[in-house]
Please model this.
Amino acid sequence: NEVCTPGVRGNDQEKNEGGNDEVAVLGDTQVGNLAGNDVSDVVRKITESIRGDHGEISVEERLDNSGVDLNSDIVGNVLKRCFKVPHLATRFFDWLKVKNVSSVTTENYNTMLYMAGDAKKFESIERLFKEMEEYNCVKDTKTWTIIFMHYGKAKMIGKALTIFERMKKSGIEPDVEAYRLLIHLLCKSKKGEIALEFYKEIIKKGFEPNNGLYPKLLNCLAGCGNIDGVYLVVNDMMNVSNILEHDAYSYALKSFCIAGRIKEALELIKGLNEKKCELKPSVFRNLSEGSLQG
Model:
């Protein structure tokens, strides 16, 4: 087990940590992403049938009497508009599986999986996941990613890693966004050594980490005391992503300061001075704040 040093001060980047990776992976499955999507009268009518108060008439009866033609796109938009009432979305989806099975698609299952995970209904996740085979819905990269993401966000890291490995064994190769999201979840759970191994897989596969991944990983590695890992990532920043030397080392120095590792920060500054590598003034402010609180 890793013993991680808590940060000595807040890091604004942590507030949005992983958000961009999640959006990249999930795309329109994210239920808030309705801009530009179909919000036609049909979608409004079905949504009203599901969410409206109609006395003693059941949701299923209202749907039977709606008289509208459904397709997978309309169903997807209705599900997204029911995000805040997942129990009603489930009733609609269950009705759909009986009445309009052609609208039951992988994408709509992914939306249901996302909602179940957001509500922390892990039994529902497992049920929906198994159901997909029954309805001939192929489990794509997004399906697996949604599932391991929600287990990871619930700090069930072992389960998240199991799902990730099952995805690979199923023949589906994780894309770079899936790797980035997994590394984010591992860093957030302070699993620096495991995060570093998956990071190495990204590099080996020829994927390029985005600039948002580097600070997360550096902060995690510095916090967990993996100094060699910090310098490995810094070298990749320069050699793989062509980040300027003084910027790459500034990230490393900031990660040492956030972790309260002032000794390592001072050693890095000494080495940079010998190389005549200039650092930004903000870096020294970070060092000063870390020294005061370390």
